[in-house]
């Protein structure tokens, strides 16, 4: 079986996907609902280090506090699980 390579985008292509995610999430943190400044890079739900790609179905907007919580907080797995559930719902994955 072949391994699937993650999508890696750069430059204008990455900016387009980031803008798409920002619009999809209405410029709000998908966890707490706080406004996220335009130009903020989205959070990768499946981390790049774990094979996650630069695609809209793997990225969500998180505020600074929730993003920190995912990577460093003791309850970050709750935020991460909520992000995964939201993306599964949006993209109808089972």
Strand and helix map with partners:
Layout (H helix, E strand, L loop, with lengths): L10 H14 L18 E2 L14 E2 L3 H9 L3 H15 L4
Antiparallel strand pairs: 1-2
Number of helical elements: 3
- The averaged pLDDT comes out at 90
Strand content: under 5%
The secondary-structure element order is HEEHH
> Into which percent range does the helicity of residues fall?
40-55%
Which stretches are poorly predicted, pLDDT < 50 over at least 5 residues?
A: none
Number of self-contained structural domains: 1
What composes the largest sheet?
Answer: 2 strands, antiparallel
SS content category: mainly alpha
What does this structure look like?
With 94 residues, the chain is mainly alpha-helical. The protein has one domain. It is built from 3 helices and 2 strands, in the order αββαα. Strands 1-2 form a two-stranded antiparallel sheet. Helix 2 packs across helix 3. The mean pLDDT is 90.
